[in-house]
């Protein structure tokens, strides 16, 4: 079986690459998907629908266009990894985790110890909480490996 793992959340570090490289090094049968990680492109996703005078409406249109990708990929994934970084608050990642919970999709949260409290509800629905990409790779190895 090939697994589909959706990588959600923080876009300002290389955690996605670390997980992908770790899974590839182990030969894990995983296809990774993700939201658009180019911040400017994501913010401009709705610009083709016309200019807006208000940043609210620009963001609204772009979030809807981005949502087409996110909604479909979350619905099709076998598991999601939801990363919360320390530099910005990833409200979209919290929404993705909630969507996974509503769909009954298993997800793993990935964040530092210092934000346990604000993420307690998100973590409570997660199947695991990891603090490093290497821990995520070890979980994926256990879950997807046919020969333990």
Major sheet: size, sense and barrel closure?
Answer: 5 strands, parallel
What's the SSE pattern? EHEHHEHEHEH
> Approximately how much helix is present in the residues?
40-55%
Widest sheet: strand ordering:
2-1-3-4-5
**Shape category:** globular
CATH A-level architecture:
3-Layer(aba) Sandwich
DSSP summary, beta strand count? 5
Radius of gyration: 16 Å
In terms of per-residue confidence, which ranges show pLDDT below 50 for 5 or more consecutive residues? Answer: none
Number of domains: 1
Proportion of residues in β-strands: 15-25%
Task: Tell me, rounded to a whole number, the average pLDDT.
Answer: 94
Give a structural overview:
The protein is α/β, with parallel strands linked by helices. It has a single domain, classed as Rossmann fold. Strands 2-1-3-4-5 form a five-stranded parallel beta sheet, sandwiched between helices. Strand 3, helix 4 and strand 4 form a beta-alpha-beta unit. Helix 1 packs parallel to helix 6. The longest helix is centred in the middle third of the chain and has 22 residues. It is globular, with a radius of gyration of 16 Å. The two termini are 15 Å apart. The relative contact order is 0.20.
